[in-house]
From TrEMBL:
Keywords noted in UniProt: ATP-binding, Calcium, Calcium transport, Calmodulin-binding, Cell membrane, Ion transport, Magnesium, Membrane, Metal-binding, Nucleotide-binding, Phosphoprotein, Translocase, Transmembrane, Transmembrane helix, Transport
PROSITE patterns, alphabetized: ATPASE_E1_E2
Ribonucleoprotein listed as a keyword: no
Major localization class: membrane
Entry EC number(s): 7.2.2.10
Record flagged with keyword Plastid: no
Residue ranges, compositional bias (Basic and acidic residues): 279-298, 345-356
Protein name (Swiss-Prot/TrEMBL): Calcium-transporting ATPase
SMART domains: Cation_ATPase_N
GO biological processes: regulation of cytosolic calcium ion concentration
Task of the protein: Catalyzes the hydrolysis of ATP coupled with the transport of calcium.
Organism: Crassostrea virginica
């Protein structure tokens, strides 16, 4: 590179030259704001164009993009990544796993038991074998704890590794458009370097800091940095500063990248936060002594791979001075808000309410179930210990008349410790230990598989929530249709063409205006390029509607790019970019006589602004209201009836000199002409042509919608197209069917029907509309949000609606956030829409949503299967331990045996039952909905039925087993007595019944064929077989460690026979009608809707108020483990704390970390030192937040 390379190749720094500006100067430039930034660049560097030269880049051609040049720029200015926070080491995960309260209790009890076994005893106190065996139980329990801790840590380690990989994939999906070597290229944001010319457009999330070179109607949301909710208007001379982490809400433009990674404004903030980490660590150690803080208020940091290595978000209190108008609602994206006054200072709220809102449907149900089981388990455990101690004391000191002496103290204490261990073990068994792992495995497995089905899951709870979906509000374009648009009909010069017209036959004026209006009044990033092989259809890049129009120009035999070369983007005088309010786009260019305005947009909207229309000679003629109605009736409605999107193209000439005016349609500009007043500029237009654009329905969509309908899911189309087009497409898709009285409304009629006399949305009026509504046309993002919120809030249906929504535009953010599951389009979706979503459809296809429903239901069913299996095991084990303690002063199932059943088998069972593949059968039943109990009456019947069978078998063996098998009686044995065949048979039979019941648990809806689909799950077969083999080894060779004695072949046969009988018993249970199970017996069933909010709040207070209530901590253990596992799943996003419930909705993007992520990561109980930004959880969400910068109301049951 001996010299600069410019022509067609971009620029690079010569080897012997240095950049004209260094990193620190670039950082200093970006510290200025608004007009100050422009003045500073002009004064110090001579403007942006000169700064480009100093950075060896071309405003039009960009940098060369050669590997040498890119590496050079990364070396000098840094790369666009912030070093990731290192993952937790295996030892750290081990330490976190061992924090479990119940495990600690077990360890303490085992150590006491171990210590007492070495205490010297007299010969009269016990035989030699007892003394030798005394230490074995303590060591065995410690060994079991070590296994549990290692398994938990290994699972955590694996999940963190997997989901960091998932985060990496999400990062790779985020690309940005830059100009390199004169060519537009989409590159991963991590590859952007200083000097790149980035092309920014509506919906982009900015990946780096930069200066505007050229802009069109550019507006940016900077609330993530400043707290200002109003959009900031950008311009080359007004405010050229662009910051990473902010969102482009309107317009387009080009910017010179000046700072990346740690040198960008967001990166600098992270670096500053990292520097304060050391002080924060000391502070945290002090804070640990403060027990007055609600655990729910201790925030967890959200870090993507961009996070500074040493950042600890918990201890950061950034101070931002200045006025933060975080209470101002966004004028352009207003969402219904209630309460609060502007400017009112917000007081930090306790995290209890927030945590409750962040639970998904399944998490809420599991929380409730775990708490209820915990109550029962605690009661039984305490009863067992009390009964054993009281019976021992009464027998020893009352009946036998012994006295407590110093010599016998160790013996008595050891007995009490033994009883305590039995009680703790009952508690261990009472809580579904394997449930958290089942949840984790089911979600992790589903997420991996869903990626193959074009569903990129961003928030894990969306998996199972989707399984409960009762309604889908879908976009039309790209989701139900192919999003490959072509112009198939047109109307111009008074003629309606059903095919491509002969260009030469058109009037010269129409020829010129048609080509120039389409070429100029479209985004210059929209292009149609030939297929690489030259055989397929041309490739459409950019906006598909604009590509259809550009393709129409090419079909006419013209070249749009020659016009663009003649009028480059920099030469455009004024651009009014398309948005959902305008539903049109306008561009002003300079002409010799003055200015010419081109407009295109929705036909009925643009036609209303037309006072003239070109006739067959290309002359403007008056266009009356009657003429408009005639064209609507004869042209637009027939086009729309064919399912075509109708676009009108128009123009207007503005003359600076009245003498040059030749037509009535032209207008002479006033001296004080205001180009910012769009309404006065875009009026009195002349219509050039009307096009009918075809976007065919995807072939597979009608079948997918039929599947949804048979699965009990209502599909609604919400589109910006006109009513006739929407109705036609909806009919082709199967959303509308003949002889059905469904509603098809446009946005105007919809608002008219749902608003009361005061203009407010009425839920009562909305409830009359939405059940029958199938198509909402010409809808605004506000209409979409109102519909989604209305359906979610409605109490018309007993099970409450669970709503999924698709969206692709920036303004779809509120609806995507409000929905229970938000789907963003991976291809056509903007970065803002993807940020607001839960799942990204990588192929923009409705069929992928149906697959998400299947996987969601599969997750839900997998967990329900495991619950059915687990609760049967727990119920039997607890009852056996309880009655054993009452009757024989001992548990027939020893502590170490129950740990084997509970911690080893259940872990394996969770893996086996969580890896079932979904089948089409899942789509043949109705969704569960929000309020249906997690454990159905059928499952209740199975749990009770199998529990009764197993208890009968175990108690028969306990009291008559020694006689039936002609072996020694194992009852009333002393502590540390050698294991007996009697109790070994009981243990082995229990395990056999549990193993075969695992096969029964594969079906939860009363199916008879329990082996159906078993071949498709080799994991289940492998684990089941492995567990069976392990049980044989354990029984035959476990000895004193596992309290087992080898069994004979005959005894093994009876154990297996009793186990296999479980399968036969299952068929008998299936025959019993579910209706015989009284509803009252299902104590875990949900209460009435009216009681839900209060109940949920009470539960949360109980969960979050754990400090100082050790009894509750014991029984809440299962829930705590569930939270830990879910946090592991989200480990790629957050630094988790094992003691509290995390937010499931922290979001981040690669290379771009919005400051809002930092703000939302902190929840301090005292007055916060940080600002109440618009994204802060401390700010009341109804007043202060932009509608999609905080997850709204994903509360599963409570009224919103």
């Amino acid at each position: 590179m001996a010299e600069d390379q410019v022509d067609g190749m971009g620029m690079s720094r010569p080897r012997d030259a240095t950049y004209g500006v260094d990193v620190m100067e670039l950082r200093k430039i970006m510290e200025h704001h608004k007009h100050e930034g422009y003045d500073y660049v002009q004064e110090k560097h001579g403007g942006v164009q000169e700064l480009c030269k100093q950075l060896y880049t071309s405003p039009n051609e960009g940098i060369s993009g050669s590997p040498v040049d890119l590496e050079d720029r990364r070396k000098v200015f840094g790369s666009n990544v912030i070093p990731p926070k290192p993952p937790k080491t295996f030892l750290q995960l081990v330490w976190e796993a061992i924090q479990d309260v119940t495990l600690i209790v077990l360890i303490v009890a085992a150590l006491i038991s171990l210590g007492l076994s070495f205490y010297p005893q007299s010969e009269s106190e016990g035989g030699e074998s007892e003394s030798e065996a005394g230490w074995i139980e303590g060591v065995a329990i410690l060994g079991a704890v070590v296994v549990v801790v290692l398994v938990t840590a290994f699972n955590d380690y694996q999940k963190e590794k997997q989901f960091r990989g998932l985060q990496s994939k999400i990062e790779h999906e985020h690309q940005f458009s830059v100009i390199r070597g004169g060519q537009d290229k989409n590159i991963p944001v991590g590859e952007i370097v200083v000097g790149d010319i980035a092309q920014v457009k509506y919906g982009d999330l900015l990946p780096a800091d930069g200066l505007i070179i050229q802009s069109n109607d550019l507006k940016v949301d900077e609330s993530s940095l400043t707290g200002e909710s109003d959009h900031v208007k950008k311009g080359e001379k007004t405010d050229p500063m662009m910051f990473s982490g902010t969102h482009v809400m309107e317009g387009s433009g080009k910017m010179l990248v000046t700072a990346v990674g740690v040198n960008s404004q967001t990166g600098i903030i992270f670096a500053l936060l990292g520097a304060s980490n050391e002080d924060g660590e000391k502070e945290r150690k002090k804070d640990k002594k403060d027990k007055n803080r609600l655990k729910g208020e201790e925030g967890n940091g959200v870090l993507s791979n961009d996070a500074e290595t040493k950042v600890d978000i918990e201890n950061i209190h950034p101070v931002v001075t200045g006025n933060n108008a975080h209470n101002n609602s966004n004028a352009n994206n207003k969402v219904p808000e209630e309460g609060g006054e502007e400017g009112e200072e917000k007081v930090p709220k306790p995290k209890v309410e927030s945590a409750r809102k962040e639970k998904s449907v399944l998490q809420g149900k599991l929380t409730k179930l775990a708490i209820q089981i915990g109550y029962g388990g605690t009661a039984v455990a305490v009863l067992v210990v009390l009964i054993l101690i009281v019976k021992f004391s009464v027998t020893k000191f009352g009946i036998e008349g012994e006295s407590w002496t110093a010599e016998k103290t160790p013996k008595y204490i050891e007995t009490f410790v033994f009883y305590f261990i039995i009680g703790v073990t009952v508690l261990v068994v009472a809580v579904p230990e394997g449930l958290p792992l089942a949840v984790t495995l089911a979600l992790a497995y589903s997420v991996r598989k869903m990626m193959d089905d074009n569903n990129l899951v961003r928030h894990l709870d969306a998996c199972e929530t989707m399984g409960n979906a009762t309604a889908i509000c879908s976009d039309k374009t790209g989701t139900l249709t192919t999003n490959r648009m072509t112009v198939v009909q047109s109307y111009m010069g008074g003629a309606h063409y059903k095919s491509t017209p002969n260009f030469k036959a058109l009037a010269p004026t129409i020829q010129e205006l048609l080509v120039r209006s389409i070429a100029i009044n479209s985004g210059y990033t929209s292009r149609v390029i030939p297929d690489k092989d030259g055989e397929g259809l041309p490739q459409q890049l950019g906006n598909k509607t604009e590509c259809a129009l550009l393709g129409f120009v090419l079909d006419l035999g013209q070249k749009y790019h020659t016009v663009r070369d003649e009028v480059p983007e920099e030469a455009l005088y004024k651009v009014y970019t398309f948005n959902s309010v305008r539903k049109s786009m306008s561009t002003v260019i300079s002409m010799k006589f003055g200015f010419r305005l081109f407009t295109k947009g929705a036909s009925e909207i643009v036609l209303k602004k037309c006072n003239y229309i070109l006739d067959c000679d290309g002359k403007p003629k008056p266009f009356t209201v009657e003429d408009q109605e005639k064209i609507v009736k004869n042209v637009i409605e027939p086009m729309a009836g064919d399912g075509l999107r109708t676009i009108c193209v128009a123009y207007k000439d503005y003359h600076t000199d009245a003498s040059t005016k030749t037509e009535d349609s032209e207008e002479v500009m006033k001296d004080n002409h205001d180009w910012e007043d769009e309404d006065s500029v875009v009026q009195n237009l002349t219509c050039i042509l009307i096009t009918g654009i075809q976007d065919p329905v995807r072939d597979e969509v009608p079948a997918s919608i039929k599947q949804c309908q048979s699965a009990g899911i209502t599909v609604r189309m919400v589109t910006g197209d006109n009513v006739n087009t929407a109705r036609s497409i909806a009919t082709k898709c199967g959303i509308l069917t003949p002889n059905e009285n469904f509603l098809v409304l446009d946005g105007k009629e919809f608002n008219k029907r749902i608003r009361d006399a005061n203009g407010e949305v009425s839920q009562e009026l909305l409830d009359k509309i939405w059940p029958d509504l199938r198509v909402l046309a010409r809808s605004s993002p506000q209409d979409k949000y109102t519909l989604v919120k209305g359906i979610i809030d409605s109490k018309l249906s007993t099970s409450r609606e669970v709503v999924a929504v698709t969206g692709d535009g920036t303004n779809d953010g509120p609806a995507l956030k409000k929905a229970d599951v938000g789907f963003a389009m991976g291809i056509s979706g903007t970065d803002v829409a993807k940020e607001a979503s839960d799942i990204i459809l990588t192929d923009d296809n409705f069929t992928s949503i149906v697959k998400a429903v299947m996987w969601g239901r599969n997750v839900y069913d997998s967990i329900a299967k495991f619950l059915q299996f687990q609760l049967t095991v727990n119920c039997v084990a607890v009852m056996v331990a309880f009655f054993g303690a009452c009757i024989i002063n001992d548990s027939p199932l020893k502590a170490i045996q129950m740990l084997w059943v509970n911690l080893i088998m259940d872990t394996l069972a969770s893996l086996a039952l969580a890896t079932e593949l979904p089948s089409m059968e899942l789509l043949k039943r109705k969704p569960y909905g929000r309020t249906k109990a997690l454990i159905s009456r059928t499952m209740t019947k199975n749990i009770l039925g199998h529990s009764i069978y197993q208890l009968i078998v175990i108690f028969v063996l306990l009291f008559e087993g020694n006689n039936l098998f002609e072996i020694d009686d194992g009852k009333y044995a002393k502590i540390h007595a050698p294991p007996s065949q009697h109790f070994t048979i009981i243990f082995n039979t229990f395990v056999m019944m549990t193993l075969f019941n695992e096969v029964n648990a594969r079906k939860i809806h009363g199916q008879r064929n329990i082996l159906e689909g078993l071949k498709r799950n080799p994991v289940f077969i492998g684990i089941w077989t492995g567990t069976f083999v392990a049980q044989i080894i354990l029984v035959q060779f476990g000895g004193t460690v596992f309290s087992t004695k080898a069994l004979t072949l005959d005894q093994w046969f009876w154990c297996v026979f009793l186990g296999v009988s479980t399968l036969l018993w299952g068929q008998i249970i299936t025959t019993v009608p579910t209706a015989v199970i009284p509803k009252k017996i299902c104590w875990w069933r949900r209460k009435s809707s009216a009681e839900e909010p209060e109940m949920e709040e009470e539960l949360e207070e109980e969960v979050d108020g754990m400090p100082g209530r050790r009894g509750q901590i014991l029984w809440i253990r299962g829930l705590a483990r569930l939270q830990t596992q879910i946090r592991v799943v989200n480990a790629f996003q957050m630094d988790f704390d094992t003691s509290q419930l995390d937010s499931y909705d922290k979001r981040s993007r690669p290379s771009v970390i919005s400051l809002q992520s930092l703000q939302s990561a902190q929840h301090k109980p005292a007055v916060s030192k940080r600002p109440n930004l618009a994204s802060s959880p401390e700010v009341d969400e109804n007043n202060s937040r932009g509608p999609w910068f905080a997850r709204q109301d994903s509360i599963p049951y409570a009224d919103e």
